Amino acid sequence: MNHFTVLSKFGTEGIGLALALDEQTKVNPDLIKILQAHVPGFTIEEDWPTEEGHIWECSFPTGAFVISIDLEGVHILATEGRPTTTFQLASSLELSHQFERKP
Question: How far is Cα 81 from Cα 64, in angstroms, rounded to an integer?
Fold first, then answer.
């Protein structure tokens, strides 16, 4: 089972999500497909490789976020509409039945 936690920074809850993927789940295409299926209006605005991983800039009608893969792991960081965006994404991951929220 895949897991995620909601990230907080300086007392601001909901800045993003840290994901722990099982061995069978790949970020691309598996996570992208989950978000496409469970986040209405999900689109990838841009994507590019980095030295340490990959970044996708994404949006949906009520928010925007970045999916980042690097040496520290997989993160989804809200860039617009947080914490609402973060909690919508968290709900979508839980509704997929492929992710479980961890405290």
Answer: 7
User: Do 21 and 31 meet the contact criterion of CB atoms below 8 Å apart?
Assistant: yes
Q: What is the pTM of this model?
A: 0.88
Q: With a cut of 90, say whether residue 101 has pLDDT above it.
A: yes
For residue 20, what are the CA distances in angstroms to 11, 63, 76, 90, 98?
A: 23, 23, 11, 13, 11
Strand pairing class (99-101; 54-60):
unpaired
Predicted confidence (pLDDT) per residue in 7-31, tens digit = 887 666 668 999 998 888 887 778 9
How far apart CA 62 and CA 40 sit, in angstroms, is 10
Question: Can you name the residues that pair with 9 across neighbouring β-strands?
Answer: 12
Q: What percent of the chain has pLDDT over 90?
A: 62
User: How is residue 17 written in tokens?
Assistant: 């999500």
Q: How many CB atoms lie within 10 A of CB 103?
A: 4
